[in-house]
Amino acid sequence: MLAFSYPVAYPVVLVGFRTADRSALASNWFKRYRITQMKITCMLGVATLVLATSHASNVTLNKPVTLNGSFFTSGGTYYPGYTSSAATVTDGLFVPAGTVWYGGTIWWTEGDSPGATVEIDLQGTFTIESLVVQADDNDAYLLEYYDPQDGLWKTAWDVPNADFVNGVNVFGMQTRPNPQDETEQYILPAPIIASALRFSGKVPPQSDGAFSVSEIQAYGYELIAGDVDIKPGSDVNPLNVKAKGVLPVAVLGSDTLDVTSIDASSALLSDVSPLRWAYEDVNEDGFDDLTLKFSNQEVVTALGPVADGDLIDLPFSAWLEDGSLLLGSDKIWVISKQ
Asked: What is the pTM of this model?
């Protein structure tokens, strides 16, 4: 069968929204957010989808930390300080504001270890929308992310110097973006996809060359693969724009996805809700699949102007019982039989 690639949709932040608001939010997601860099390969008739949690969480929490370079372990040539385990960088806890930079933190100097980095393995692939860092006040830092789509490290946040807060010269460990509120998060200009984070100090004059970090937090959603199939059993998925019947769609179950955990009433195909649904093993793999029927004409209306022969990607979403949002898409081939 013919293989092709197409952009994958990705989730939006839904923190603080009520359950009743979620259908509208999922609908708006289709209109506002598309990933153009991330591509996946599929076969005609079967496409890949992703699952994403509906509430952002700290995806660095208790993730492994690697120190690359020479870090102080029990004081050093110039400072009498002491350190903590590297694991404290992702333990979800902040030290008291103003804590001395070499007092129970992860600390190093540019002179002793040029280019040293603190690396966090996220142990998965995540969409990240916001960040929080607690580090020494009179230094600027660089927080990078590893993009698994192209295998490159990229800038997530140029963490600013926080030596002065509201005109007052502060001291020691300070939280960014707001030293006066540890819960405030730096909102990224656009969500990023990352499997690791890397933290480093910026050289003078942006810093004094003596660096320290006590906490790095990143808020987002884990991406998990699954399968969705429009017109199960069809390789080309023809959509007759004149037809008055229904368009069948299946979300394929697996050993990692129990389709009975999907709230079928929340499903949307190109902003259209299903008429009905059931459970059956459409691909005979031993796992139940969620089968849904959508009004053919409602889907055609949602598509807007189309031409005979168009190949169009239809986005699909549905909420899971645990609050996760299942996102996906599959191709249809437009035909206009009389």
From this structure: 0.67
